[in-house]
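Predict structure. Chain length: 321.
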Amino acid sequence: MIIISKRRALLAALSLAFAAPALADTKPMRLIVAFAPGGPVDSVARTLAEQLGKELGRTVVVDNRPGANGAIGALEVARAAPDGSTLWLTSVGAAAINPALYDKLPYDMTRDFAPVSVVVDNVELLAVNANDPAKDATDFIAAAKQRKEPTAMASSGIGSIPHLAIEQLIDATGVRLLHVPYKGAAPAITDLMGGQVAGFFGDVPGLLGHVRGGKLKALGIASAKRHPALPDVKTLDEQGIKGVDTVNWYALFAPAKTPPATIDALNRAVRAALTHATVRDKLLQTGAEPAPSTPQELAALLKRDTEKWARLIRAKNIKAE
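Prediction complete.
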């Protein structure tokens, strides 16, 4: 009986060892956000963090490292131990646009990071002042073509997703537009409501409240499908404007050389967190669409968007400030 008991104990211990998750560490996990607190990426991070912690059985701490167009946060993660205790939540800009926008980057997405999962999709919405007579994007374009001077459109900065959406709209319609870059979306939206600029492409979460409050008018979605929070707003494609497809996705990356088993465990936890009713509903209420993926799907998305935005940036000779 003693021998049998010892054997059973050994088998039980081995079973627990092999069944133990790849993320057995109980120390807090850092979720690096390369933007200041209170912004859209930070908001998504904090919505995700609590449930992700529950899925992993450990505390997840949001660590804001803003600056240098995402490079400070990126380097913090690239230099971290590849043990699953540090993740980077980034928007598409730092991951897929910066490589073409800057001649030299201190990080390389392929060399320095391992994809974990897409977190949310934030599609771009074409919005105008509430008093604009345009009923949809085709009206807006038709009016712009009648003007002698180029129509002023704001963006959140040179090389930003809103800027690239403007360039796609120019190519798709032949309309003359004047790009007016701002330092962030907030001042651009303020001037749009004040009538200083005629239009703005922005992430749905940043514009949804203004549209629902009647301060801005939504003319079209720059995506392949309509947005669940704005089901009556047609896509630009539905309106006959082809080729304007911009999604400011947010995704999670781990340091390179993080073991595949750890990446898989992280991916399972992220997918479980994003499909949890509380997290999903909260994100959808803000206009962000939960979009969990496999690491392989994120890697493919990163490759496609890096190539797509590089072609446009080169063709337009866009240079970072």
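Summary: Residues 31 and 120 are 15 Å apart (CA to CA).
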